[in-house]
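To the structural biology subgroup,

Please find below the input and predicted structure for Flagellar biosynthesis protein FlhF, which we are adding to the shared reference set this quarter. The sequence is reproduced verbatim from the submission form. If anyone notices a discrepancy with their own records, reply to this email rather than editing the shared folder directly, so we keep one authoritative version.
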Amino acid sequence: MSVAKFVAANGREAMRKVREAMGPDAVVLSNRTVEGGVEIVAMRDADLGAVSATAIQYVDPTPVVAQPSASLLATAPQDGAELGDLRGELASMRAMLERQFAGLSGGAPGVSGVSGVSAGDPLRESLFEWLVNAGFSGQLSRTLLSKLPVGYDRPAAMGWIRQELARKVPVLSDEDTLFAQGGVLALIGPTGVGKTTTTAKLAARFVLRHGPEQLALLTTDSFRIGAHEQLRIYGDILGVPVHAVKDAADLRFALNAMKDKHLVIIDTVGMSQRDRSLSDQIAMLAGVQAPLQRVLVLNGASHGDTLNEVVHAYRHDTAPNAGAGLDGCIISKLDEATHLGSVLDVVIRHRLPVFYASTGQRVPEHLELAQGAALVERAFLTPRRGSLFADADAARRQAAAAVDEARAPAAPQGGADDMLRSLTDSANAVGVCVEELNAAQYGFELARSLWQQRAVGGPALRQAAQQVRLTMCRDAARACERYVLAVTGTTTLPTQGRRAPQLLQQTLWLADRDGMPLATTLVPSSRTRQSLAEAEAEAEAATVRATLAAARTVVNLHASLPTTTTLARWQQTGERWVAGMRKTTRVIANGVANKLDTIADTLTFHAIGEQQWRDRDAVQWLGHCMVRVPEGQVRTAARVRTDGSEAGIEACLVVSRLVDRATGEMLATEYMLCDAALAGDAARVARWSRWADAAEEQFRTLRHAVEHFAQEAGRGGDAADGSASDASTYGHLVSIQLGLTTLRLQHTPSPTAPAFLSRLAGRALARVNAPVQGSVLNEGMGRLLALLDVLENYPGRSMAATGAPASEPAPQSTALAATQFARSMDAESADAMQMASMGE
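Predicted structure (tokenized):
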């Protein structure tokens, strides 16, 4: 057996030596960069069988584990041992061949001198382009790659780079420390970066934690029309005073008048980094006597050179003797950035701590505490369709690659390597995701089955609806103890043929044990001039209610008290109810009409458990008593019948109080009225009411699912009877089932499916196991369905070539198909790389 080592100045020259010495069928065993060039270890193809044969007979002279007995060795299948050894060899060789394949496709002349990365190291070259395309500078990219440990393949190297970048991005470790310091916090930066909106977001975050009494807002922006008015509106909403100042004297006077405030946030006038009057603004802030923190707002969508110039101007170039340093920065407009790596490169270069990241206009939701790992992940996940303004070095390499592709279109390209490897990894991840969704009770199998059948005309609409109801009853029997909960709200959906969106009444059915979503129905709110489809939707909703009511007692959860007529009807049908109430509502207790908060002061409360309330540990206390709901609109006194009995509907008042566990401070009070039959379930009533409050977000998720899936899900659904109306109804049925799958996944997340669906949707998670928005899961679910359609049809390619009929894949074969696809991609990738490395 001949194994030889070849060293040359670059990969191409080394491979030429291999072919000259061992022929075109030589097998490359290793490929690495050494001092003086590239080293390749290769062997003849004829000797490969000898390697496997000798590997089976090899015995370690110093074993570290117990050896199997002779009887076991005698009965063990030798074919399996050979296959295991062969797989191990192929797995190690595959990584080597990948590097060789990348080296053959990236050896354009002159690249080494351009990038500063050795042309003989294709892995570092591809990583360099990956970093530059994300927005990082060539200087930082080369520095990182120079420290890359030896022996890493591409996935491991990318993971190491992400960790290094996340470690280098300085961030604010604790928001409480920032607010506890108090004093003056000045937001500075160029025009149009979002300082005023960021000021409002910071103020809102402070108010949520500490209240409005200890905060004041100042603005020095007298140039932009409406700047003061915009900030004043935010101040009115938050209950925070807002003042405008023009110069240093005004600023000193205003701050002196606000000595009692713990924190003053200043929204400064925006100035270009090249404006000569910028030094005057810096000097004005330097005259502040109170503790001052200067926070620079950086536009994440700006070019890296512009950002670098801005930081230099505000930190170094202006008023060098006026203490014009920067305490930190806030990155804005992340939702608009296409190359987020540029701003991360700048903060790393200047060691500028990142306090927050702004992802939109909403106050205060779109301001997040900065996390290095999340920012780095977002930089690489931001979708890009190519750049017209790329780094010059990367542009030269792209041009050289385009010339090579035009000259040799049939030659294997470096992108094929990435594509095959990406498909392999994605197929494995798809298989795991589908297994998780099928293993748990998410309803994914039913939704997937209905989605598949749409393409072949779909089942009859009634048959599909019956299938959904059957599954719903089975889920209710499993998840519900005594009751099934109904939360009702309104929503709007765009309707074809109508100018205005249609107003719909939506009912979400929940399990009483844990609040898991069971089903949902959509019916028109208006009962006039109903179309046939609308009438069928209302009939289907009534059927769903009757079906669930036959299995469990229905409890209707409302945000306010329904009419006495509705309460009376529920009383007659045996349905229960719970309604959220205001503290000023009057009910009859002990023959006297009083407000709910007055009655609450007379109740005895009992602690029932602990829960989180706005990041604070709280203890929940409950009190309840029997009352009567007055008939009609009685608010001032109770009606009394002639026989002396009280009028109205008997009910139970439940009062929930949240008390800070550490300080005893009253945090929140909630008032509920419920059916008298639920008087013994006060703790459940409080828990159900909390679920009803969260239903608004669930309604939005379902609405997004209908808008996102309905059109595609309805295609082909009318083939069964030729009715376009049935196609639309079928599309709504499928989209609702997919929306329910999303809600259940949010309710009980699986280990990896939410993160994988988020990646499919092109979104980065802020942290590990962070909750994922329903709209993101819906988008990821749509892309998952598209991937499954491709993966499940992949095995049929060979049948089509031979003329054999391809059978329709069963839903339960999805994970298997994904695994098979991954294995086939592994094989095809290895074959392609082997041929390329041999020069064929």
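Summary notes: The chain has a mean pLDDT of 74. Residues 169-381 form a domain with the Rossmann fold fold (CATH 3.40.50.300).

Regards,
Lab coordination
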